[in-house]
Each structure stands twice: as C-alpha cells, then as structure tokens.
Write a structure and sequence with these properties.
Protein name: Tetratricopeptide (TPR) repeat protein
Keywords: Repeat, TPR repeat
InterPro entries: CellSynth/LPSAsmb/PSIAsmb, DUF5107, TPR-like_helical_dom_sf
Strand order of the largest sheet: 15-16-17-18-30-26-25-21
CATH class of one domain: Mainly Beta
Shape: globular
Structural class: alpha+beta
Strand content: 15-25%
Mean pLDDT: 95
Oligomer: single chain
Number of helices: 29
Low-confidence stretches: 1-13
CATH architecture of one domain: Distorted Sandwich
Radius of gyration: 29 Å
Pfam families: DUF5107
Length: 980
C-alpha cells in the first residue's frame, strides 16, 4: 500500500475530495445490478503528523475515555503540520445501484465516504481533508466517516494502516476485509464491509480473535460521524427514557434533559427558550457532551437531517450490541474551535456510536484465550421519512400521531407488492395498503384513522414476512436507573469477596487511577490463602514477566483449591501455572498442569492447543495432529488450530490434505498473516506482526521458517508503528541458541547492538524472554536498556531503573537511556540529584530535542527551581522551546511571572497552537494571564490559539483524592513525573 506525498502546499481551490468513476471493466457488472469494488488511489489534502518522539511514553495513569491512556509500546506523536499537502491515499471503493463507499486501509480501515445515490446525500460525515488533531491515544485522530474502535476507544491504531482485500461473492455482493493486530495485546481484529447486489444496506461483519494464550479485555464501538447543523436530530428508540455519562456517573432524561448535565442546567434553558432542553438536537448542546442510552428493548437508532430530508439508521442485535451513544464538541465557541482543528470547510459533526459487547465507556468485556467473537452491524440511509420510530435491516418506519395516523416507510431493497397493515389494540385490521417499494423512495400512507393508543403498524413483504413492525411505547418511565459509585477504601470494604471483585473490576476496566493491589493485599491480610486473589495476583505477575513470583502465588492458590478437591471445578489456576512453567522452561511441569486444566471445559481448547504445540516442538507430529483432531471434536473453535494442522500435515508428508485444509482456512480468513505465509510466503506489512508471525511459527516447531521471517523483519524500516529490527535480531539469537548455534546467536546479538534503535519499544512476554536470554548469554547494555523499557511499562520499575543504570555503567551513553533513568530516579528512587544528572546528560547528548527540554523543565518545577532559573534555561534554548506548544506556554508564563508580560503576549499571539484534547485552556489561560498582567480586559481569543472560551467549567481529569472524571481526558505530559 504505497503512498505518494507531494512536498508543495496543496492548492486550496482543489480541496474537494473527488471520487473516481467506476472502472470500465466493472461497469457492466454495476449495470447488471451487482455490487462492484476496486482499489484506486485518491488525492486528498492532508495535514501530515510529525515524526514521533524517540522517547517512550509511560502514561499508565493518564485518563483517556475513562480508562487508562497508556500508550507504550506505541511511539507518541505530538505535532501536526500546519499546512496541507496533496497526498495520494490508497483507497477501496464500493458501489452498487444505491450506494457509493470509500474505505481507507491506511487509516485503520475506516469508511471515509458513504454516499446515498438515491438522495444525493452523504449519510456519514464526509471530511474533504485529512486533518488530524491531537485527540488520539498516540496523538493523531481525524473526524469523519466511521472509525472502528477496538480494543479500546479510540482505536489505538486509528492512524495506522491495516491489511485489506476484496472478496466478490456469487450472489453479486462484495466484502472489503480489513485486519490488523492491536498494538497492545496483539489480538487480531477483522472487519468486513459488505454491500449487497440490490440493497442500500452497509453491513459490517466483525471477527475479534484473541490469538494470545491468556484472557484479554476489549470493547467495540463503531464511531459514526454525521454532519450537523441547527436542523439535525439524533434519535434513539422510543422507549429510551434516560441517558448516562461515561461510567454511569451521571444521568439525565431523554430526549428532554431533566436535570443539570455536564454543567448545563437544561431546565433553566428551557424556561428561557422553549425546547432548549431537547438534547436530541445538536443546536441545544453548548458544551462537549457524551450520552449513552441506559436501556432499550429495540435494536435501532440513528440521525436525521431535516434540511436535507435524509438521514441514516443503525441496527444491531441488542443481545450483544446494546451500546448507543452520542458525542458532540458542543454548539458554542469551544466546540467550534475543535471543528476548525479537524476540518477546513466541512463544519461541525456529532458522533453516533454503536457499541457491541459494551454499553458504556469504559465498559470492557473478556475474550478467552483463542476465542473469536463474531457479530454484524448494519447501517443504511433513509430518505425523507423523518426520524425512525422503528427499524429493522429491511425497512424503517415513521409514525406521525398528530391527528390521523400518518405512516412513512423506507425500505433497503426492492419490495414488490409490499403490504402495510394497521391494527387496533385487539388485533383487528383497520386499514391495509399495498405498493411497490424501492430504496430511496418514501411511501406515505394517510390512514384516515384517528390516532389512538394501542394502534399497531406492520409492513409485510409480498410473501407475508414481516419487514418492520411498530407499536406505541408505554409512557410509564419506571424506576430511576442506577448510577455508579466509587469503591470504598480497602479497609472499609466488608468482605474479601467484594475486595476481590473490586480488584477484578479495576483490572477489567483498565482503571487509570486505582490499582487492584491495595484491595487484593487487604483481602490477603484477612485471608492469606484466598485462592481467587492469589490467582489474580499471579496473573498480574505473569503478565509482567515475574514468573517466579507467579509460581509462588499459584502454588499457594492451588494448595487451597485442591485441599479437599483434587478435581477443581474451575481450572484457571492450573492453566495459568502451565503457562508460567512453560515460560520458566519446565515443559514437563507445564504439560502436567495443562493436562489437568484440560479437565475443565473452559480450558479444553487453550490447554489442548498448548499441549499440541509442545508435541509439535518436540517433533511428535502424529501425536500433535491427533490432539488437534480430538480438540476439533470436543472443543470450541480456536482459529490457531488450523494453521498448526497445516504445518503438521506437511511434516507428515500429507501435502494434499494440507493444501485442502489451507484453502478452506484461507477462504474463511483471507487476511490471516500465518495462513498467508504458509500459503504463498507472503509477509505482513507491519513490523510487530513480523514478530507475531515468527513467534507462531516457532511455537509450531518451525524454527527455520521463524528465523527466515525474523531475518526479513530486520529490514523493516522504523515508522510511526515502531521499530522491530533490533528485537528481531534478539529473537533470532534466542532461537539460534536453542538450536545450539551459539556463535551465530552471538553475532545476532552484536548486530542488534549496532542497529538503529529509534522507536524500539519492546513489549510482551516474547520480547521479555529473549532480552532476558540475551543478558544471560553475555553483558549487553543495549539488551539491558530495552528490557528496562519493557519492565518500566509493566510496573516493575525498580528492576527497570537497575537495568538502565547497568546499561549506562556498561558504556551505553545514549539520550534515551539517560532520560529513562532520570525519570525513574525521580519517580522510583526519589533521588533528585541523580534525576537531574541523567536529564542533563540526555539534553547534552540530544540538545535539539524539545521533549527533553520540556521534561527537564517539568522536573525543575517539581524540584522547586525558581522562575528566573527556569526562564534563563529556556531563554538560552529558545530555538528548541519554539518547537513545542507546551514549552512555549510554560515559557510565556515564566515571562509573565518575571515581569515581561508584553513579550509573553507577543509570543503567544505570534504562534498557531494545536491543543491536546484534555489540555484545553492552557494556551487560553496563558494568554489571559499575560493580558491581565498588562491591565488588559479579558477578550475574545484569536483563532491562532486553537481554543474557544468555554461556556462552562471543564471537568478535572484527576482530583486531589485520586478520583477521576470519566469524561475528562488528561493531558499526557503532566503524568510522567509521578512518585510511587
């Protein structure tokens, strides 16, 4: 997926995104009524992100969408270009008789354009520029279209490429598949954007696969943007009476807000202006606001543009897809400033988001080892029926109850002889109408029946099948829904059971400010042998690479579990012990634990796979294949088994069987990297996926193939996704050592030490183990430095500092290791002198890096240096200061505090700022302080500040008592220095 970016500034007269015509080779298919899809690059004005910082960011306590804003091991981007370039983006286009879609695989596989050909309406927000702002987890995030968010919100890889392919079906439909491995847990997410031959529906088929050996948490929100104005109305099902804030910390009525919400007193607003309490209209919401439905019995929601007389519906099975949400920046100067940051001319938008396996944010569910969750979501445009009062995948219906019953219907596929029935409360037919319907048309039925309670409307196909059915929702509001409360302090919790469950909640929801450890430690104080708590702690230790500690905890847990029952009902501790023993190198002990865990149906599939892998690695191919056959007969599907089966069949000389199995697997999953490699030798486009692929090959006993993939990985260039070349060499060394090729392994480690280490941020247990092995083989300051980076992120911060000091003592005089050691010296060792020394050395080694200078200034604040000292340091390096907004703000504040307010004001007004979401108000505050010092009144900020003055008091992300506001997003930089 190559790109071609011009270097000259784009011509603004050419800014509109122009979609290409259907290729001549596909025109006949389109004319025949089939859907068509093709690759064709498009030119879009693009504001390019800067290169990432070369320093790892440890932001585990950052508040981001109510959960942890942890970003490691992803590189962190902190600036976007201020002028666009005309860039060619790889794009996939889909068209049928009713729809035109454009998907951007280089930007997370998002739908960028969704156009209704029947009404001439973009039913999703079309942003004619790629203009990211600093909203994303790692920096860049763009508005528009549909962003598919997982395993948290926003998608961590939202501004990174995915693999894609087009699948054409015999029925004339097409699916564009997009797939990648998430940057954190390395789970695999695949979404297929499907358009039928004769339908106006966009169906997204999703497969979320936990390809790891341990349970992982996730959520899924499809983030749909729609262009809004005063006449745009969002709609939820008619039985929705309340909506909730993030984490259900607050509620309000819906569609009329009946209490203060996000600081806005909507009742008071409605007293001044009729209808101003209706939060289903964008025009009535003056502040950044989220709301999620609390409950509904229905599957649909959407939005409607009353000016354009068009809109859209979303539908999904509510058994797994309860989440329905709106977000807006707010129709006020503060929100308008963000609109300008995210587009050049396309105006404001709101997000109408659909959650699956989640109904709030944060709200995470679990994926078991090897598990795949499958589901579908549906969107379709609606013509001028008004807001939908009921909808299915086949049709949407609006029922006007003012006067005689008036019904408006829209369908998603041609329906000849459709029949509309209106019945009363007793089921007696009161009116019947027939028509031929096609997508894009509105069927308006004037019933002549006075509106009355109990009336029911049903649209049937000519076959008699129900397409959509509506009946009036009862007006009884029922009880007020519950709201969340913060857990009590550990000592105040009544039971060990509750202490365990609170800790589990904090783990599951990736809480940014509360740790499970105080709760679990208190539980063990009361009951030192609580098996659930010991197992939970063991899992945390395992994930951090503390295998000895994990084993000790599991031995204690199993002593309690098996004291009276040698065959426990739940085998999670046994399975985890098998993983621990496997990492410790005791294959026999691991197999014993896996074999016992295999007795529990929940662990048949993952434990069975681990044992089959053991047999494959030992060369016992027939036994491994037999294990897979048995697993297929009794265990839930685990996509990892298929590739292992192909490998084993080939080793046993059963090439025809292997080929047949591989063809079947690839037809089911055309973008699986391991299957692609086994089929054609294809290699992934992402560096970390090279390591994933090599690891899976090695676990299948394919050492030579793993070495070959890793050799290719050493030539993958560094990018915004990271740099795996040095790690690939350490992985090669570990395999070569296991093969007894010690000299070759030593050469790989030497090559790793000489590699470009920019953006090399190791993560995960495979990286951990090969770096530990490298240090066991010989003194290696680079391996020590990299392992320290991994352990600091994993919470083993004392160990990380010791490794960084060891690397420096071993001769690694590198700005990254000195910066890391300086950060840990302050946070962990509380050694201020050493922290300063490390930072000064890092700055000396990399004097042009503005992040280092910013962090040195942040350290100065915490060490109580005077404003004059700080100003003099920054003044001497003003060329570097000017590279960062936050450093310019800090310097401007220092100018004000040391008597140079006029200089500060001139500095602030000479610059175009790019605020972080969560950091709003910092630039404006500095501007206000400079003006106040000069005796000037508070004024309307210039657009160059990038901020509008808020009409409310923004929420505080983190309060003094440790509580967090789940709406607020905390500015990343302020959380690096946090003493433990």
């Amino acid at each position: 997926m190559s790109t071609d970016t011009t270097t000259e500034t784009a011509d603004r007269s050419n800014a509109e995104l122009v979609l290409p015509d259907v290729p001549a080779a596909l025109r006949a298919d389109l004319d025949a009524g089939r859907a068509v899809a093709w690759y064709e690059a498009v030119e879009i004005d693009t504001y390019e992100p800067d290169a990432p910082s070369t320093y790892p960011m440890y932001l585990d306590q950052r508040v981001y969408q109510g959960s942890s804003g942890r970003v490691y091991p992803m590189p962190f981007i902190e600036r976007i270009a201020s002028a666009p370039v005309r860039r060619r983006w790889n794009a996939v286009h889909i068209e049928n008789a009713y729809l035109r879609l454009m998907i951007l695989p280089e930007l997370g596989g998002r739908i960028h354009v969704a156009y209704d050909k029947t009404t001439g309406y973009d039913f999703f927000y079309r942003n004619n520029v790629i203009k990211p702002a600093l909203v994303g987890l790692t920096g860049p995030w763009m508005s528009g279209g549909v962003e598919f968010n997982w395993p948290q919100h926003h998608r961590p890889a939202t501004f990174l490429p995915v693999e894609s392919t087009i699948e054409r079906h015999d029925d004339g439909s097409v699916t564009v598949w997009c797939s990648d491995h998430d940057p954190f847990a390395r789970m695999r997410g695949t979404h297929g954007i499907h358009v039928g031959a004769n339908s106006s529906t966009v169906r997204v088929d999703v497969r979320l696969h936990n390809r790891t050996s341990i349970a992982q948490t996730f959520l899924w929100w499809a983030n749909v943007a729609v262009r809004v104005h005063d006449q745009y109305q969002s709609f939820f099902p008619e039985d929705v009476r309340h909506v909730a804030d993030h984490a259900r910390r607050a509620l309000t009525g819906y569609p009329q807000a009946d209490r203060p919400y996000y600081g806005v007193d909507y009742r008071e607003r409605a007293r001044r202006e009729t209808g101003a309490d209706r939060i289903d209209w964008y025009r009535n919401i003056p502040v950044p606001t989220s709301y999620m439905i609390v409950d509904t019995e229905h599957e649909y929601f959407g939005g409607y543009d009353h000016d354009a007389q068009a809109g859209f519906v979303h539908w999904a099975d509510r058994r797994v897809a309860p989440g329905k949400k709106q977000w807006t920046w707010g129709d006020a100067p503060f929100g308008h400033a963000w609109d300008r940051l995210l587009t050049d001319a396309d105006g404001p938008y709101v997000e109408l988001m659909a959650g699956v396996y989640t109904d709030n944010q944060p709200d995470f569910s679990w994926l078991a080892p090897g598990e795949t969750k499958r589901f579908s979501q549906y969107w379709y445009p609606i013509p001028g029926i008004g807001v939908a009062h009921q909808a299915s995948t086949e049709a949407a219906i609006h029922v006007d109850r003012d006067g005689d019953l008036l019904v408006k219907v829209a369908v998603t596929s041609p329906q000849a002889g459709a029949r509309l029935e209106i019945r009363d409360a007793d089921g007696i037919l009161r009116s019947e109408h027939t028509a031929d319907l096609v997508p894009g048309d509105v069927w308006l039925v004037e019933s002549g029946i006075p509106s009355a309670s109990g009336l029911r409307v049903r649209l049937r196909a000519a076959t008699g099948a129900t397409l959509v059915a509506w009946q009036e929702v009862a007006s009884d509001e029922g009880e007020e829904p519950w709201t969340a409360t913060a857990p009590s302090a550990p000592a105040d919790v009544d039971s060990t059971d509750e202490l365990y469950l609170i800790g589990l909640h904090l783990v599951q929801y990736r809480h940014p400010s509360r740790s499970p450890l105080p709760y679990w430690d208190e539980a063990l104080r009361r009951d030192p042998s609580d098996a659930r708590v010991l197992t939970g702690l063991a899992e945390l230790a395992y994930r951090a690479g503390s295998y000895g500690r994990a084993k000790e905890l599991l031995d204690r847990a199993l002593a309690r579990i098996t004291a009276r029952n040698a065959n426990p009902r739940h085998a999670d501790a046994l399975y985890l012990l098998g993983l621990v023993e496997q990492r410790r190198g005791d294959a026999a002990a691991a197999r014993r634990s896996f074999a016992k865990a295999f007795w529990d149906a929940a662990f048949v599939a993952p434990a069975g796979l681990e044992m089959a892998r053991q047999s494959a690695q030992a060369g016992d191919h027939a036994a491994a294949l037999h294990d897979l056959d048995e697993l297929d007969a009794v265990a839930s599907d685990d996509r990892r088994r298929g590739a292992l089966r192909v490998v084993l069949l080939r080793r046993l000389g059963r090439d025809a069987d292997a080929g047949a199995a591989l063809r079947r697997l690839r037809a089911e999953d055309p973008l699986d990297p391991l299957l692609g490699f086994l089929d054609t030798g294809a290699l992934p486009g992402d560096g970390r996926t090279f390591l994933d692929l090599a690891g899976e090959l090695a676990r299948a006993g394919e050492a030579d193939a793993a070495l070959s993939v890793l050799d290719d990985a050493t030539r993958v260039p560094p990018s915004a996704a990271g740099n795996v070349a040095p790690l690939a060499r350490y992985h090669r060394a570990a395999i070569l050592d296991r093969l007894g090729l010690a000299d070759d392994a030593a050469r790989e480690r030497a090559a790793a030490r000489e590699s470009d280490r920019r953006w090399t941020f190791p993560a995960g247990l495979d990286d951990h183990d090969v770096l530990v092995a490298a240090l066991a083989a010989e003194p290696d300051p680079v391996a020590a430095s990299l392992l320290g980076a991994l352990l600091y992120d994993a919470g083993r911060r004392e160990d990380a500092l010791a490794l960084w000091e060891r690397a420096i003592e071993g001769g690694l005089d590198d700005p990254v290791v000195h910066r890391n050691a300086g950060l840990a010296s302050y946070n962990v060792a509380h050694d201020d002198v050493r922290a300063v020394a490390h930072y000064e050395r890092a700055v000396a080694l990399d004097p042009g890096d503005a992040r280092l200078l910013f962090e040195r200034d942040q350290l100065a604040v915490r060490l109580g240096e005077t404003d004059i000292e700080r100003r003099e340091r920054l003044a001497d390096r003003f060329d570097v200061v000017a590279a960062r907004d936050d450093l310019v703000v800090a310097y401007a504040d220092l100018l004000v505090s040391t008597g140079s307010a006029a200089e500060a004001l001139a500095l602030l007004e000479s610059r175009v700022f790019q605020p972080w979401e969560g950091g709003e108000g910092r630039v404006l505050g500095a501007w206000d302080r400079a003006r106040d010092a000069l005796g000037l009144p508070q004024g309307e900020p210039p657009l160059s500040l990038g901020e509008g003055r808020p009409a409310y008091t923004p929420p505080i992300a983190r309060h003094a008592d440790g509580e967090i506001d789940y709406f607020a997003t905390s500015l990343p930089d302020l959380l690096l220095f946090s003493r433990s």
